[in-house]
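Lecture 7 notes: from sequence to structure.

We start with a single chain of 453 residues. Read the sequence below before looking at the structure.
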Amino acid sequence: MTALSKYMVVISFDCLSSLDIDLLKTLPNFQRFFQIGSFASRVETIYPSLTYPCHATIVTGKYPIHHGIINNTLLQPGYPSPDWNWYRSGIKGTTLFDEANRANLTTAALLWPVTGKAKSIQYNLPEIFPNRPWQNQLFVSLLNGTPSYQWELNKLFGYIRHGLNQPELDDFVLESTVHTILTKNPNLLLVHFTDLDTQRHQFGVFSKEAEAAIRRHDHRLGRILDALEKSGRYEETSIVVLGDHSALDEKKAIHLNVILKEKGLISLNKKGRLINWQAYCKSCDGSAYIYLKNQEDNETKTTLKHILKELKEAPENGIESVISGEEAGRKGADSKCLYMVEARKGYYFHDAHNGPFIKHIKDEDVRKGTYTYGSHGYSPEKPDYATVFFIMGKGIQKKAEIPYMRLVDIGPTLAKVLGLSLGKTDGEVMLNFLDLQPKINVKFNDTESKGVV
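Now the structure, written as tokens:
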């Protein structure tokens, strides 16, 4: 398969929304994409629309049910802080970076989700954090990425970071990205920025803090474009900017496990810790999976059916819809759940099994990091809930606008640009973005007329 471009940079601005388009058009570096690139102003995300499933979809072209990353975190009932889907081994099948490596292209990734221990990424700083008391950030990062590369980045730019706090974390990623472009010459570079997502969680979707993060992202984008120009590879590179999901404001958290505890389906010890369960609500923020411990437990199935029916009938309970696991699978989510529930606008789900059924969120709850004011994970069918996709550079049409595409279409499209194949995917190549016209190089000798071909 012929490549349209030898180099590609993919920049993920987590939580960038289609509703941000008007602001993006006023910002100098995003304007370059509107002026000379192509874009889709409405990209349908996946279900559940969470960061880790979304980023696995971007590099596979598949829905969660097919690539295997069905949630940010693992199903670990009773764990105060469940482990995340950090590792490449969690993805079924191939990925864009696997195929690039197989084609002898140099690959690099900075905080790209689900890349821990990815052998096909030569320069890898995976998104992972210490989740147990005996762990520290340096140890888990070095263990799961490229040690020498990470040591180099931390030696040069580690002073910028302040733990996982934003915007310092993204500022560190930016300097690392520029350094990687200038010194490592990767054919495929995947970069994930989370500043905007953090601000929307903490302050709300359209807060002044979120707008400030978008403006910081425009600056970061400019620095990356400048680095490509300085490297001499700008004209030979296809450059992608994308979001993974949007977000919605909320002020109420649904503790569905509290109801399951009251109905005897979750058991706690005297210290309030979960010790057993027959059914469990696993939050995806704007949606949630309901799992059975024993798939043959018909009594619990009947109990759950009645519980969810009663809750859905009262709007103040915050549950908009209830679908079966089979239907969830048809929507691309985990078909192994018994039910999947969707929150109403203004609500989201929380795993807590103590406290009130409906938690009214206060500023102090958000400051502690226990709750948020903005969430995603909702159904892509929610109105005004799309994300965006921009692409420009080598092999790309200029000023092609597509009003609608899907997140699953991104992977096969990027693979096509690099001359790669992801095999069977759920998405399709967005051919309107690509410059597929053959380039004819005509040679003349001294006796030929150079005015006519």
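Residues 40 and 321 are 29 Å apart (CA to CA). Keep this in mind for problem set 3.
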